[in-house]
Amino acid sequence: MKSELICPNCNEKLDIDTSEDLIFLNCSNKKCSYESVIDMDCISE
Predict the structure, then answer these.
(1) Is 4 helix (H, G, I), strand (E, B) or coil?
(2) Is residue 4's pLDDT more than 70?
(3) Are 30 and 15 in contact (CB under 8 A)?
(4) CB atoms near residue 19 (< 10 Å)
(5) Over the chain, what HEC string results?
(6) ∠ at Cα 31 (39, 12), nearest 5°?
(7) Domain limits of the chain?
(8) pTM of the predicted protein model
(9) CA pair distance 28, 13, nearest whole angstrom
(10) Cβ-contact 5, 31 below 8 angstroms
(11) At residue 17, what are phi and psi to the nearest 5 degrees?
(12) Tens digit of pLDDT for each residue in 17-34?
C-alpha cells in the first residue's frame, strides 16, 4: 500500500506492508534499494 511517506534517498513515495508488530517500508522506485523495518514493540507512548 502506498503511503504519504517519502523516501530519504530518492523522494519517491514509500510502500507500507505490515506483519504482526512490524511495519515494512520499501521505496516504490525499483531503482532505489531503500528499506526500513519498524518494530512497534519498541515504540513507547
Answers:
(1) strand
(2) yes
(3) no
(4) 8
(5) CEEEEECCCCCCEEEEEEECCEEEEEECCCCCCCEEEEEHHHCCC
(6) 60
(7) 2-42
(8) 0.76
(9) 6
(10) no
(11) -130, 145
(12) 999 899 999 999 999 999
